[in-house]
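ok, trying the design again with the full structure, not the truncated one.
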């Protein structure tokens, strides 16, 4: 297994990789959660082939997060990706449109969107009733609306706006599924480059054996089991293990489970049954990473893994120094989710690139799944943490 970690700006580093050399790109770039820019200005820059520079601070005051990557990064990604290679990129719900527009402008084909749903987000909402109430206690009691237009609030205003806010609770992050265009058929491309398709069997959900009956035996000519086995093209029945992966996954939290009408949080599978079903299903290696549920509820149809646990975030950091034992990255992705994504779009033994590696969760997942990995990160502290987390997993799984 080859692991190549590069410290620096991916815009420059990407030029050092050979064209058509990478099998998949799986990344979690800056979400651009600072003040919304003037869209006409952004798009004018992008359509002219320039970068747009946004000067602001993003999530938790991090300047690297101030704006989504523009088309120039994705153009370089397109060049190094093999024809038919997939790009999976997380985005924030607010800036997904901008992020994917940049990916489209770079020449990618958008294929789908995977929704990752979780229960642990907090709304950043402005409580209007409380804000007005607070203003009442300030002298002079005026709220400037615009120059020369001052509104004098009353206690009735505070009552009227009680219960009003400005934001919803964040509960999902979309993942853009894009692919580098290719010529010829997908079969020709897969045979030539190994890329262009998704590894459905390696990402099936659950472990039960299911039979996909011949489609023409069913009323209406369609398989009743299509969600399990996909639309049968040849009408021939086959046995499969687990359900067809959906473009929806979740964190298994009570909050999300409660959204499903028939959920049963029966996560107490025996260790033997867990071990028997580790590879190619949603049940993942580290017990702490993912919870499990029986297949009796509708929620079990979807891949799930909890948000990154402390153990997952910090694993291996004690090797770095006695003081740096915590991973302080604010946006660590869970390894089991990254591993599922790696398996979905990377051919066996393929090379995965993450140009916005952060603390290295994609790399750690690539090691677990036996893929080669190239990671890029501009921040030296995060780079060191990524190096340690990935090296620890390598040593653990492949001690030399
Ligand atoms: C959202 S974080 C990725 C977090 C990662 N998924 C994890 O689990 O730790 C994005 C990362 O991209 C890095 N970054 C931003 N701009 C970059 C650039 N031009 N080149 C390389 N890295 C960059 C930031 O420093 C940040 O660590």
């Amino acid at each position: 297994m080859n692991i190549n970690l590069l410290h620096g700006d991916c815009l420059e580093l990407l030029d050092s990789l050979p064209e058509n050399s990478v099998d998949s790109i799986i990344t979690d770039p800056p979400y651009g959660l600072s003040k919304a820019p003037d869209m006409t200005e952004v798009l004018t820059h992008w359509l002219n082939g320039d970068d747009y520079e946004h000067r602001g601070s993003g999530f938790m005051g991090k300047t690297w997060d101030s704006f989504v990557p523009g088309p120039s990064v994705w153009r370089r990604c397109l060049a190094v990706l093999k024809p038919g290679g997939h790009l999976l990129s997380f985005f924030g719900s607010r800036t997904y449109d901008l992020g994917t527009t940049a990916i489209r402008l770079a020449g990618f084909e958008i294929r789908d969107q995977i929704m990752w749903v979780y229960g642990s987000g907090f709304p950043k909402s402005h409580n209007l009733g409380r804000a007005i109430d607070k203003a009442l206690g300030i002298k002079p009691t005026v709220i400037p609306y615009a120059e020369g237009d001052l509104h004098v609030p009353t206690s009735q205003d505070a009552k009227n706006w009680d219960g009003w806010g400005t934001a919803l609770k964040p509960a999902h992050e979309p993942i853009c599924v894009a692919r580098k265009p290719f010529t010829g058929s997908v079969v020709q491309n897969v045979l030539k480059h190994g890329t262009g398709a998704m590894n459905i069997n390696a990402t099936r959900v659950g472990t039960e054996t299911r039979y996909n009956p011949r489609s023409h035996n069913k009323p209406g000519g369609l398989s009743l089991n299509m969600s399990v086995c996909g639309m049968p093209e040849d009408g021939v029945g086959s046995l499969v293990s687990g359900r067809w992966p959906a473009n929806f996954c979740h964190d298994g939290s009570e909050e999300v489970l409660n959204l499903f009408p028939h959920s049963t949080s029966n996560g107490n599978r025996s260790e033997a049954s867990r071990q028997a079903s580790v590879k190619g299903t949603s049940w993942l290696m580290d017990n702490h990473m993912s919870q499990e549920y029986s297949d009796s509820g509708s929620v079990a149809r979807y891949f799930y893994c909890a948000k990154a646990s402390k153990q997952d975030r910090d694993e291996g950091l004690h090797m770095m120094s006695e003081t740096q034992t915590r991973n302080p990255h604010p946006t660590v992705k869970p390894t089991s989710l990254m591993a599922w994504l790696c398996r979905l779009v990377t051919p066996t033994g393929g090379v995965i690139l993450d140009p916005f590696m952060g603390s290295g969760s994609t790399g750690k997942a690539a090691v677990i799944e036996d893929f080669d990995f190239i990671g890029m990160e501009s921040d030296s502290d995060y780079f060191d943490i990524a190096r340690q987390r990935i090296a620890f997993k390598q040593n653990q799984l492949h001690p030399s």
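Keeping the full-length input from now on. Residues 215-224, 264-296 have pLDDT under 50 and may be disordered.
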